[in-house]
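Entry:
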Amino acid sequence: MTVPRVLATATIMGSGARHRQGERGREAVALVTLYLVWGSTYLAIRLGLDGFPPFVLGALRFFIGGGAILLFLRWRGLPLGDRREWMSAAVVGTLLLLGGNGLVIWSEQWVPTGVAAVLVATVPLWTVLLEALLFRAPPSRWAAAAVLVGTVGVAVLAGPRDWGVGGVPWWGAAALLVASLSWAAGTVLARRLSRPTSALTATGQQMLFGGLGFAVVALALGEFARWDPTRTPPTAWAALAYLVVAGSWIGFTAYLWLLEHSTPARATSYAYVNPAVAVLLGWALRGEPLTGRVLLALLLVAGAVALVLRDAVRPVPAAPPARRRRPRSRCPAP
């Protein structure tokens, strides 16, 4: 191999390594953003329910969030997607937002925010199971171990005292489990259905359909007729603004970006961190006790996330050096 060719090969390899490092850095930023933002939305939802019926809250959140994104894209002259992408957005947006987020909002009328986050932490388990059942994609040993360790962690965090008779209404717990299954189904399908190359465009499309679904349910339940905007407290309006800006624009875009550039297990690892974030917010802002049991759960949750990250950054074996080969036949292999 000549010297210029060696230098060119080294330059290409160095460029590829820098690209992989940059990709990992963006992935880490997206994950941390998702952990912090979506971990705090449970408290924001509870504050919003002080002034909004549950499905009115969801309709306003996603209509405002999705509509603003699409208007911004139109103003910039960017494409809004073709018909096939809009049809995919209708399916995924309904599963993720109406089925997943909608049932979470509805259940938080009775279920404490921390317990809700614990039940939603089953999303990675449902995701791995759906991948295996529907697409014959069995999880790696690291992803399976992460599901196991994370499940133990959230069980320790909930504990028998939180799950005692009368502690959590069965309908609220059942709704949260169905919400987790719906979100997992949307996650799996989002990776396979046609979608725009821009995560921001996909976010706007799916939020618009999610908001439409919320509005239909709110009308059917008579929530708009019962809601009086003049009696909605400022804290509820502030919670709605936070859900739109942080929970929807920032968090949802980061989530869709992870679905495009990462594995399902890693993208849904936020579910194991959300209970920890909820506990820490309660301790910092509301003076809730931080017990040894909670610290043990946090260690288990951190271990689950570490296993998910380990699965995503496994080194890829280097390709063998190219060798000269004789011309091959154009006939297909048997």
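The chain has one domain: 26-312.
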